[in-house]
Amino acid sequence: MDGGGNNLYHFLHLSSDGNLFIFANRDSILFNYQQNRVVKTFPRIPGGGSRNYPSSGSSVILPLDHQDRFQKVEVMVCGGAASGAYEAAARGRFLPALSSCGRMVITGNNHIWKMENMPRPRTMHDMLILPTGHILIINGARRGCAGWQNAATPSLRPYLYNPKKSRGQRFTVLKATRIARMYHSSALLLPDGRVLVSGGNPYNTYTFSNVAYPTELRLQAFVPDYMDRQFNDLRPGNVTVEYEGHSSGVAYGTAFTIHFWLGRRPSKDMEYSVYAPPFTTHSISMNQRLLKLRCGNCVFGKIFTCIFIRSMNVFIQITREEN
């Protein structure tokens, strides 16, 4: 990879073929960590600027689907900083961040970055996969880069990205927050579907006064539209899971049964997804992925779901230890 800097906190995703996708600055590879071998070198993402710290864009794997046995793995990279942004910030000049996003399928043999633009430039943001399969882009700044006092103009409006829509129609601008969340901010999805938003400290000590962007200790809950009360009768309650022959959880390649209560009978379009919550820092949500599973034998109040997760390359199984 290009050794020109802006390659810290690189993006790393585990592909369903067992190899690692590694992205740093503008370049990316597929790496076989068991054989210590580069399997594939991907095309450089188009456009200038950089995507990794201190330029600090963000990245996700788009939702994986049982219909192709989770074999189509598509990576999305958004935002970052302009070339020279770090040096310019040291002189008190904050360059506009990158507004471009790139999507590329890293499995198969046809690897092309498909580019599109966010509504506005953004750096130091978080990208979260919501239960709907949409991508939430939240936090960050519109000018500068990561580091101590290296950015200005906070990005107060989150973006909602729908991967299934046509290009040019995928982004929706959401209601703004009043709290700047730039360097050292973070966001993560909560079990109830809300998003916990926290942090923001562009100083090397806690600084609360006489500065443009003071150290931020307040927490916020971002409430997506699917949490609206009009959907209360479609939100499952009293959820229990029956494991078949495995008291400690669901095993790879096995089925399990879910019992739940709904306020009204669902339509025939019923989906079941499983989500791995991330460890989040510096605009990177590690281990984050969402899988759309196959389900059958659906009756009112109960779904029998078959999981076609054959290995930990698709979804890491967390083993519960008994005391």
Quickly describe the structure:
The protein is an all-beta fold and 323 residues long. The protein has one helix at 85-90, and strands spanning 11-14, 20-24, 27-32, 37-41, 58-61, 64-65, 74-78, 100-105, 114-117, 126-129, 135-138, 141-144, 151-154, 159-161, 171-173, 185-189, 195-199, 220-222, 237-243, 255-261, 272-276, 279-281, 284-286, 289-299, 302-306.
> Radius of gyration over alpha carbons?
21 Å
Please mark out the parts with pLDDT under 50 across 5 or more consecutive residues, or reply none.
318-323
Order of H and E elements? EEEEEEEHEEEEEEEEEEEEEEEEEE
> Helicity, in percent?
under 10%
The rounded distance between the terminal residues' Cα atoms is 46 Å
Morphology = globular
| Whole-number mean pLDDT | 88
Number of strands: 25
The description of the largest β-sheet is: 6 strands, mixed
> How many structural domains in the coordinates?
2
Share in β-strands = 35-45%
